[in-house]
Amino acid sequence: MKPIYYPEPFRIKSVEPLKLLSRKEREERLAGAHYNMFALAARDVYIDLLTDSGTGAMSTEQWAGVMRGDESYAGAECYYRVQETAKKIFGLPYLQIVHQGRAAEKVLLPLLLEGKKYAIANMHFDTTRAHVELAGARAIDCVVPEALETTKPYDFKGNMDLARLESLLKELGAENVGVVIMTVTNNSAGGQPVSVANIRAAEKIAHKYGVPFMIDAARYAENSYFVKQREPEFKNSSIEEIVKATFEGADCFTMSAKKDAIVNMGGLIGCRDRALFEKIKQRTISYEGFVTYGGMSGRDIEALARGLEEGIDEHYLRYRIGQMEYLAARLDEAGIAYQTPVGGHAVFVDAKKLLPHIPYYEFPAQALAAELYLEAGIRACDIGSFMLGNDPDTGKQLKADFEFTRLAIPRRIYTQSHLDVIADALENIKERASGVRGYKIVEEPPILRHFTAKLAPISAK
Ligand SMILES: *Cc1c(COP(=O)(O)O)cnc(C)c1O
Questions:
Q1: Backbone phi, then psi, for 452, in 5-degree steps?
Q2: CATH 3.90.1150.10 location in the chain
Q3: Is 255's C-beta closer than 6 angstroms to any atom of ligand 1?
Q4: Which whole-number Å values give the CA distances from 440 to 234, 350, 393, in the listed order?
Q5: Tell me: the pLDDT tens digits for 298-351?
Q6: Is the CB–ligand 1 distance for residue 258 below 6 Å?
Q7: What is this structure's pTM?
Q8: Which fold has domain 23-52+313-457?
């Protein structure tokens, strides 16, 4: 029986033209960008899979909300609306809007990490890691070992390794650990889900040692959809109920609303402790803006309030995850390895397997991203050693557990035909894989280097 990949539960009302440059033009543009995908002009990209962050298409309801945005400096109508909606969905009493996920991290993490040495997470997203380091602490990843075997299916590859979490807390001294973070879905492991059972267990361990438990909630809705599919306890629960269960034991959360809340800009902090909330508000005023706008326009806040609800619609989520499953099935046919089973917001192609002749310090996932652009004007990015960067203590290139080329799928943007182009391009690259060469770094900043570093191809020996 042929699987049905639930088709788009919407029709198109407004379109944006796309253009595919010639091969020669693409070569020139890529060299001009010093082989860094972030330096390409969007106009030169045919299918943009750089990120699913802030790149989604808003609904007619959200656009209508844009018109109704209240731009008052203090106490705008949209502020009350987003507070009420977020309180209802996440169940935490204190909420602060900010302009994006890293702003939430900048406001909250220094409060949790003051005088501490470590943060432990199932996996830190790159900006989260950066903010842990900027707060003077070290970020330790503690994902289940199943996550590392990309071709082996496992329902919850995003999970925390619970035994290791407990031994880390003992070894490092719980008094030195400022926070235990659960990233849902686990972005860096391949958009892999975390089970509610694992969230509950990690929270118990953190609390047993007196360490606050935080959720990095960028993909709360996609994670909940996977939980419904895969965790028997929740098979008859609504997405709303699963989201509630996810946040039940969390002391606080940070959220980039640019993902599952389907807005182009926005973020959120939640917490349960009144004293912590007072500090959050003070830092928000210093860094973001007054508490009732938190660095956002009223129109964006209104779109966020609506997006929070649209993101947890089960029909939408079935189509959304269905897109990943469709693309993954095409890669299965072509024998191209990716993080299996496919994650929630992207297909993470295993570049180590596709380009085994390129070592980690020549960035195989970056090489594949460059190749995708040359092949079909597709922009993807490296989630591997190039992104991980250098050891902050020794300055030496770190070796990532994975070398993924991430094909992030923006929400409600591309159709199934675009997905076919992506699969066809990868098939073509696979055929000439042995001729693809690695890259070296010519110039790099000390932190979050993958955004601005300059690269050059390594010439044939
Ligand atoms: C995107 C993301 C962030 C950072 O959010 P921005 O809105 O890009 O600043 C943090 N954590 C995770 C898991 C993310 O995916």
A1: -125, -5
A2: 23-52+313-457
A3: no
A4: 47, 20, 21
A5: 999 999 999 999 999 999 999 999 999 999 999 999 999 999 999 999 999 999
A6: yes
A7: 0.93
A8: Aspartate Aminotransferase, domain 1 (3.90.1150)
Q: Which residue matches tokens 């390129």?
A: 358
Tell me the pairing of strands 267-271 and 94-98: antiparallel
Q: Which amino acid is at 101?
A: G
- Burial (CB count <10 Å: 0-12, 13-18, 19+), residue 100: buried
For residue 282, the surrounding DSSP H or E stretch is helix 274-287
Which positions are catalytic?
A: 73, 125-126, 216, 218, 259, 450
User: Yes or no: is domain 60-310 CATH 3.40.640.10?
Assistant: yes
CA of 155 to the centre of ligand 1 (A): 23
- For the stretch 244-277, pLDDT in tens is 999 999 999 999 999 999 999 999 999 999 999 9
Contacts of 124 (CB under 8 A, 6+ apart): 132, 139, 141, 181, 183, 188
Pairing type for strands 177-183 and 454-457 reads: unpaired
**Numbered ranges of CATH 3.40.640.10 in the chain:** 60-310
